[in-house]
């Protein structure tokens, strides 16, 4: 088991809370589904198998947006246990609505800061996949410090993967993709699975999202990064 990386101070966050209104359907789904599928944040390790009532491969997605992609992945892989983190309540409500519509029971949801969840709630060496799709690119140069994918976060994320686990990123911003590639390549716990150390083809397991389609319309190439967790040096 790896040791936790030093707890980083968090004066800068990678998100800004937008208090958008829930639709009636989102609010009803939130109220009906949170007691069963929601996880109230507490700074203690989660018993993931107990949360799902079974063991199974563990997939954690950070920033699932409105939940369409996460719901599609959960429907396609009912044997896998999906944890989703999203700070915006309308997105949480929408995912719970999709789960209700599709009869999905293999997803649990947290509405909290992902860095605090990873630090306090997810045990080292415990995830099979950690995925971050289309995080906020904070495209203005003066805001790059707000980007999620930085060395301290990457070290934390890698430490939560089990050996052989996958860290899967996707973005439609070229300069952010370059930063991601450089940061992940420098992490001693990660190995690039793509040929020649570049970007990976989109795995079939990642559904096309509206962000990807928007990026294609704008002429932005979408880049996937797939890095494998390697055992820590003894």
Automatic annotation (TrEMBL):
Sites where the protein binds S-adenosyl-L-methionine: 61, 86, 113, 136
Binding annotation for substrate: 140, 172, 209-212
One Pfam family named in its UniProt record: Methyltransf_4
A GO CC term attached to the entry: tRNA methyltransferase complex
SUPFAM superfamilies, alphabetized: S-adenosyl-L-methionine-dependent methyltransferases
GO molecular function: tRNA (guanine(46)-N7)-methyltransferase activity
EC number, as in UniProt: 2.1.1.33
Function: Catalyzes the formation of N(7)-methylguanine at position 46 (m7G46) in tRNA.
Similarity comment: family membership: Belongs to the class I-like SAM-binding methyltransferase superfamily. TrmB family.
Listed NCBIfam families: tRNA (guanosine(46)-N7)-methyltransferase TrmB (TIGR00091)
Protein name: tRNA (guanine-N(7)-)-methyltransferase
């Amino acid at each position: 088991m790896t040791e936790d990386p030093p707890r980083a101070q968090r004066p800068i966050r990678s998100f800004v809370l937008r208090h958008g209104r829930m639709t009636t359907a989102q609010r009803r789904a939130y109220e009906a589904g949170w007691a069963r599928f929601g996880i109230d944040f507490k700074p203690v390790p989660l018993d993931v198998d107990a949360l799902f009532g079974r063991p199974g491969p563990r997939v954690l997605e950070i920033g699932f947006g409105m939940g369409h992609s996460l719901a599609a992945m959960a429907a396609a892989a009912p044997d896998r246990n999906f944890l989703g983190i999203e700070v915006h309540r309308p997105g949480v409500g929408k995912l719970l609505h999709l789960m209700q519509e599709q009869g999905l029971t293999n997803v649990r949801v947290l509405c909290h800061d992902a860095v605090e969840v990873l630090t306090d709630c997810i045990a080292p060496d415990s995830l099979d996949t950690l995925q971050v799709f289309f995080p906020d690119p904070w495209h203005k140069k003066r805001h790059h410090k707000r980007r999620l994918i930085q060395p301290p976060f990457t070290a934390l994320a890698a430490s939560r993967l089990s050996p052989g686990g996958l860290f899967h990123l996707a973005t439609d911003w070229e300069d952010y993709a370059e930063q991601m590639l450089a940061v992940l390549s420098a992490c001693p716990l990660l190995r690039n699975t793509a040929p020649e150390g570049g970007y990976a083809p989109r795995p079939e397991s990642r559904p096309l999202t509206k962000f990807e389609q928007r990026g294609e319309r704008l002429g932005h190439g979408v880049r996937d990064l797939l890095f494998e967790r390697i055992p820590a040096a003894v």
